[in-house]
């Protein structure tokens, strides 16, 4: 049975990791796993008018703390939102450095079918940088029209509650439809039905090393 000890979550933007695999993060954190989180943009240009540019950085730190991550394990980069393709090499180099430092057994990355240009860069470069780690792609349904749910991680009611609580830390994003608690619970319930458990998160498998 696959039992990762060190886990890395790659989020193109703050909140992507919590949205895609927040329940799994909570489950692994409760089990005492060594979990790291790296977000590559704090999206200061996407904030509502009047909010401080570091708003999402502060919200991300609150959200990851709710899930059980120590502050030292959360790294925030500041690549410009929607411009990742222009910084592909720099992002790859940061990923390689993370790999050397953390040496994760499992890496959560955006889906291969995610159409957001920033997410696509993180997906592709992560496949290169972490070729000796298990790689699972997380689900963000609003960004892809198809998703190959070939791996499920079952979640307890506590895990999904932690995910919902973490997402509430993103008050600046509360207006977005995918941030609504009923959506989070409904998707987890659907994936739970598909995997014969109460709640679950679904993933694409790109490499499995056990």
Radius of gyration: 16 Å
Q: Shape from CA axes?
A: globular
Largest sheet: 7 strands, mixed
CATH-level-4 superfamily name: LmbE-like
Total number of strands: 7
- Give helix and strand order, one letter per element, not per position: EHEHEHEHEEHHE
Based on secondary structure, the structural category is alpha/beta
Determine the number of helices (DSSP H or I, runs of at least 4 residues): 6
For the biggest β-sheet, the strand order reads 3-2-1-4-5-7-6
* Second-tier CATH architecture: 3-Layer(aba) Sandwich
Report the helical percentage. Answer: 25-40%
**N-to-C span:** 7 Å
CATH class value: Alpha Beta
- Extract low-pLDDT stretches: none
The count of domains is 1
Mean pLDDT: 97
By CATH, the topology is Rossmann fold
Strand residue content: 15-25%
């Amino acid at each position: 049975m696959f039992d990762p000890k060190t886990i890395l979550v790659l989020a193109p933007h703050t909140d992507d990791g919590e949205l895609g695999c927040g329940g799994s993060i909570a489950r692994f954190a409760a089990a005492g796993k060594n979990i790291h989180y790296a977000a590559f943009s704090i999206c200061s240009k996407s904030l509502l008018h009047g909010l401080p540019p570091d708003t999402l950085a502060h919200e991300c730190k609150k959200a990851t703390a709710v899930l059980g991550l120590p502050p030292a394990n959360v790294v925030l980069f500041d690549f410009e939102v929607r411009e990742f393709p222009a910084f592909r090499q720099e992002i790859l180099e940061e990923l390689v450095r993370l790999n050397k430092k953390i040496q994760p057994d499992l890496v959560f990355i955006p889906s291969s079918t995610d159409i957001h240009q920033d997410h696509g860069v993180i997906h592709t470069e992560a496949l290169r940088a972490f070729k000796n780690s298990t790689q699972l792609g997380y689900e963000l349904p609003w960004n892809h029209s198809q998703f190959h749910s070939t791996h499920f991680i079952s979640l307890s009611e506590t895990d999904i509650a932690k995910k919902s609580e973490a997402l509430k830390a993103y008050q600046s994003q509360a207006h977005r439809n995918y941030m609504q608690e009923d959506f989070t619970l409904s998707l987890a319930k659907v994936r739970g039905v598909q995997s014969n458990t109460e709640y679950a998160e679904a993933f694409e498998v790109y490499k499995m090393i056990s």
